[in-house]
Amino acid sequence: MPIEPTHRFLRACHSLPVDQTPVWLMRQAGRYLPEYMRVRQQAGNFLSLCKNPDLATEVTLQPVYRFDMDAAILFSDILVVPEAMGMSLSFGMGEGPVLEPFLRTPSDLRRLRPVQPEEQLGYVLQTVTQIRQALQEKTPLIGFSGSPWTLATYMVEGGSSKTFRYIKGMLFDQPALLQQLLDQIADVVADYLNAQIAHGVQAVQIFDTWGGVLGPREFVTFSLRSIQRIIDRLQRVGPDGQTVPIILFFFFFGSMLEEMIGTGCDVIGLDWTTHLATARHQVAARAALQGNLDPAVLYATPDIVRHQVRQLLQDYGPYPGHVFNLGHGMAQDMDPGRVVDLVRAVREESRLLLQQNGGMQRIQEKRP
After folding, report:
1. pLDDT tens digits, residue range 110-148?
2. Protein fold of 8-356
3. What is the pTM of this model?
4. Do residues 59 and 36 lie in contact, with contact meaning Cβ atoms separated by under 8 Å?
5. Is there a contact between 86 and 112 (Cβ–Cβ < 8 Å)?
6. Which residues contact 39 (CB under 8 A, 6 or more apart)?
7. I want to staple 108 with a disulfide (CB 3.0 to 4.6 A). Which of 60, 103, 124, 213 is the partner?
8. Catalytic residues, which ones?
9. Rounded to 5 degrees, what are φ and ψ at 73?
């Protein structure tokens, strides 16, 4: 029988009572931190930083130590998976990623190679081991991967896209070929996340950054289907005997909560376009929710940051199953001082909310 977690973040992921709402931020280790920029300069470039376990460990820990976050998230990039599958990955100066040669025909897909995570992605797994050693048992570590649909968009387009011409062309003209690619990616991602779990991550997050460019039917068929394939293969209990929560983050797709719950995930990450109170009422006790402050709030004054935090916490209410986060990641021009204000506000306002309501209340379960 799995061991009940003691860490605040892990308890919230399992919708267990906590003393205050846990908080961590997507892209919390990044270019807005001066200490990160110094380490990145030392590494030479972004990809070299990802592939250096000592430096990747250092930048993972920076926001944990600076802000006392309730969780650390592994520093890496979602595109190390396509690279491991045989594609060439590069990041141009001031530009987005470039993946070559792009995948658009059956012969292109045959170039992809099988992946053994311990071999092609061993540097990531070594980083996981080092982070866990550094954190000891004080702060949980989150591992992650991109979703198959999101990874496929980069692999087919050859990089970032505004129109998604080629991936959507494949979706409508060659759906069987796209499903073949998605299945192949899903199997690699499942193996990769299982390897992260074996090396010590205590939660995993699957980022579906580009699911929001799909229509509802296509989202279920080409995004959720492959995510379900991953979840069905994941090792749900870690080496420490604790259940490993699965977090799904979707951008611009809060209308599909029922379908997301159906995957068997433990936590649904929401962007800021979904009303948190509405989502809680719909999801009830079937999954925890993560999010969903608009990142742009961090450009405002400390008083406004606190007001927005208070509103969001009140929207969720004094119930278990909330992990405070942004509705997307930190931007490079944000002030670290606003993160201090944010974390302090989450802790103080969530404790006050619980005091005012006589502690944490039980959510009424909702049957599907």
Report:
1. 999 999 999 999 999 999 999 999 999 999 999 999 999
2. TIM Barrel (3.20.20)
3. 0.96
4. yes
5. yes
6. 49, 55, 58, 59, 62
7. 103
8. 27, 31, 40, 77, 154
9. -120, 130
